[in-house]
Amino acid sequence: MTLEENRQKGEKIALTLMYDGLRFCGWQVQKNARSVQSTLQDALQSVLGYRPDVCGCSRTDSSVHANNYVCHILKAGVSMDCERLTMALNAHLRDSGLAVKSACIKNADFHARYSCTSKEYIYKIWNEKYDNPFLKGKAMFYPRQIDIASLSYVNEEFCGTHDFRSFMSKGSKNENNTVRTVKYFDVERCDGLVTIRVCADGFLYNMVRIMVGTYLDLARKNAPSGSLTQIIEGKNRALAGDTAPAEGLYLNRIFY
């Protein structure tokens, strides 16, 4: 296929990334700061000889990590196959805090952001009386005991289609569209590590971190069933808990 035929067809290459959020200012390019997007573009320019536009699935904030972040570039101009592209990019990204897990060809209709049907985040909490040096910057340290069993109602009350205005930070661009559908809010413990897993068709600004902060607030108060529903129905940020720290948050899966 000629380059012109490739352009007309509009095929794309989807890249799946993982990165350490502490090493970056976030996904999006910013002046005088190191972003995931610009770091990837630097590597692409070195490998391809030109600097392609990169479209990401989400704007992760500073210190937020990713296990499976999806972005795409146009296939036009890329002569190497996906395996060679992945290897070449990782050679340039070594020790950068960013790695390309895989690359694959998508059709012209694919878009890393707009084709997404839902996203899964996980939030890690180190729940012991002592800090864990191996999880520094990778999990929230929370020494107060979390009784997961007593909060089993939280999953049911979070799930479904609700107006999540109470779980949105000020300054959001979605103030007029705050209804989201949460598919699950699961909590599990493995020794001292508590992992919260939440999936929805979309998230408001800082929504997951506020959900986690509210969960911890309910745990601290030993709040009864129905307490979370009252917060949701109140549609008031002041009713929800604090925003949990960014470093415990991971963009874990993107569904298409």
Briefly, what is this?
The protein is of the alpha+beta class and 256 residues long. Helices cover 24% and strands 28% of the residues.
Structural notes for this entry:
- By secondary structure, the chain is of the alpha+beta class.
- The chain has 2 domains: 104 residues, Alpha-Beta Plaits, CATH 3.30.70.580; 138 residues, 2-Layer Sandwich (Alpha-Beta Plaits), CATH 3.30.70.660.
- The chain is built from 6 helices and 10 strands.
- Strand 2 and strand 3 form a beta hairpin.
- Helix 2 crosses helix 3.
- The longest helix is centred in the last third of the chain and has 15 residues.
CATH level-four homologous superfamily name of the largest domain: Pseudouridine synthase I, catalytic domain, C-terminal subdomain
The appropriate CATH architecture of the largest domain is 2-Layer Sandwich
Which structural class matches the secondary elements? alpha+beta
Report how far the terminal alpha carbons are from each other. 27 Å
- Count of all domains: 2
Which series of helices and strands comes N to C? HEHEEHEEEHEEEHHE
Strand content: 25-35%
Low-confidence stretches: none
Rg of Cα set: 20 Å
Supply the number of helical segments: 6
How would you describe this structure in keywords?
single chain, 256 residues, alpha+beta, Alpha-Beta Plaits, 2 domains, ten-stranded mixed beta sheet, 10 strands, 24% helix, globular
Question: What's the structural blueprint in terms of helices and strands?
Answer:
Elements: H1 3-9, E1 12-19, H2 36-48, E2 55-56, E3 65-74, H3 82-93, E4 98-106, E5 118-126, E6 140-141, H4 153-158, E7 160-163, E8 179-190, E9 193-200, H5 207-221, H6 227-234, E10 249-255
Parallel strand pairs: 3-10, 5-6
Antiparallel strand pairs: 1-3, 1-4, 2-3, 5-9, 5-10, 7-8, 8-9
Helix pairs in contact: 2-3
